[in-house]
Design a protein that fits this description.
Strand content: under 5%
Distance between the termini: 60 Å
Strand order of the largest sheet: 1-4
Number of strands: 4
Helix content: 55-70%
Largest sheet: 2 strands, antiparallel
Number of helices: 28
Length: 723
Amino acid sequence: MSETLEDVQAVKPRLETFSYDNQIVKLFAIATVLWGIVGMLVGVTVAFQLFIPDLNLDVSWLVFSRLRPLHTNAVIFAFVGNCIFMGVYYSLQRLLKARMWSDMLSKLHFWGWQGIIVAAAITLPLGFTQSKEYAELEWPIDLAITIVWVIFGINMFMTMLNRRERHLYVAIWFYLGSWVTVAILHIFNSIEVPVSFLQSYPVYAGVQDALVQWWYGHNAVAFFLTTPYLGLMYYFVPKAANRPVYSYKLSIIHFWSLIFIYIWAGPHHLLYTSLPDWAQSLGMVFSVMLIAPSWGGMLNGLLTLRGAFDKVREDPILKFMVVAITAYGMATFEGPMLSIKSINALSHYTDWTIAHVHVGALGWNGFLTFGILYWLIPRMWKTELYSKKMANAHFWLGMLGIILYAIPMYWAGVTQGLMWLQFTPEGQLLYPNFLETVTGLIPLYALRAIGGTFFLTGAIMMAYNLIKTTKQGSFVKDEGHEAPALAKVYKPHKGEGKLRFLERQPITMHIGVLIVIMIGGLVEVIPLYTINSNVPTISSVKPYTPLELEGRDIYVSEGCYVCHSQMVRPFRAETERYGEYSKSGEFIYDRPFQWGSKRTGPDLHRVGGKYPDSWHYEHMRDPASMSPGSIMPRYGWLLENDLDISSLENKIKVMRALGVPYPIDYEKYAAEDLMTQANKIAGRLKEAGFDAKPNKEIIALIAYLQRLGTDIKGDPASTAGEQ
């Protein structure tokens, strides 16, 4: 993995003695195991809540729609994030033959990251969210993420500059690419204007917000869940197998083509939406191209194990790693396939996407993490793994968990998609009642929950195994080592290529990575902000009233977007079921956008005026009373909670500053208008026999729901498109 120093000095370089910091690796390892179990436990909880709504316990902070974002954040940023840092801090020091530049920065990084996780665990169940996939956390936490990420980057780059090993091994390329890309994605997607201590509005709206979010969202998967783990693969798989990486040339192709192509693929999450066709097509084309570099990396990982397959049969560590790499290959084949429009028309908004995501999360991220932990902990404690039999049992439990999770979700996804699209011979929807397409899947949801339970049980077994391993060993906090000092003057070898030279220059390589990943982002994002015709306006679309604005914020806070979309695609099946297809001009005041990613419930973009106020009131109190068999949780607290309008003036000011045409000084009269509209809704509810007070949250939510999709009604231009 490393190279000898070039003969650039007449005298042999002297050996320097130093030590590796294992303490920081230990801390991140503990956090990985702890948060992994917590995140999986929340995942199992919401899996059971999905088909047993009584498990929501009628408690706001335990409801499915608030816990599901907590699950994704815990697994991605707490479990996977801590594993990334654990692996980077261990491997980087050894690949560079240098201790981390600053122990203090390492500690600040660790405790800062754990603080962010705790903040997420508190705020998300309490309903403080931006409602963006993988970017739900509010602005103070976003700032903290930026600071901690910069601390990590400074420590990493300074360690590279103070290294004793000339060449930057392939794993480090992926660490570099991941750090710089995640930094850019997070900053651009998190440009928001605060309206209170824990609420903000994004500067982007509607179509623009959707594109930036999925430019971030897809590449958060790419550059947080994938590329750093590829770096870990290139270090830990050869170490565990005691074999060199199969092909250095293939690793070069893998790295540069992957980071260039990946950044373009985000729009494939928005196929058949109101996003302009050119952006959708770009996303689809580059997504399909991703198969080549992704499978190049998978083959490089698997072929590294050539000649070691006898060892794989006996070694649970290699078993985990082989399945992880295979799952990476499966997920990166399926992802491009799902990006093809004809396939996406069936799969989008269904459980197929859930299955696809979890093959990567459970198989690739989960199993590689388990393999690394089983390899790393015994070495840091200078002992043998406590029980290989238990590790093997964990492997098979995990495998069974993945199978019981993925297969039912694939089945459910295809079933959903086909049921939504099915017509009778007479031309009517075969399943006009959306609930029919949900209740039939409940046995599959139960199997998924059982599979998740198996996977969680295996992780708990691993925790016990690792604890027993540490107790029988002796931890080495500062591991001594010696290596020659790096020659200050370097002359390239004769015949050495420019790329090989680049791999010895961390700053230059950093700049190269920045240029490569920015090309795709700029090409896709800039046109939506410089060409007005890309987001046409509709004259009848007006800003939300103050009460509707407050209701929309409640909708976001309660996590309604988790189960409901607000995007009617231009399919006959969808226009028959929901109404007129959605147009980009309808979303120009939507901050944040609410197009959704999954339909556990029906699309809501045309729900305005479809039902009386009393129906919505009773539906939120007890969904099953209006839709027998519904698996939607009860939201009874909305009928009891007083509407908080303390930030209303700030909301109006911020919206106006962002381009929403509220009149000057309207914030002074907004509360009065809000109460006027609230009294009208409360009056209609009282006429229907409900003792509803105008100052309750349910009134604002009803106002928002009754507004959805109504702006284009009666607008002649809307029937022919946008003007």
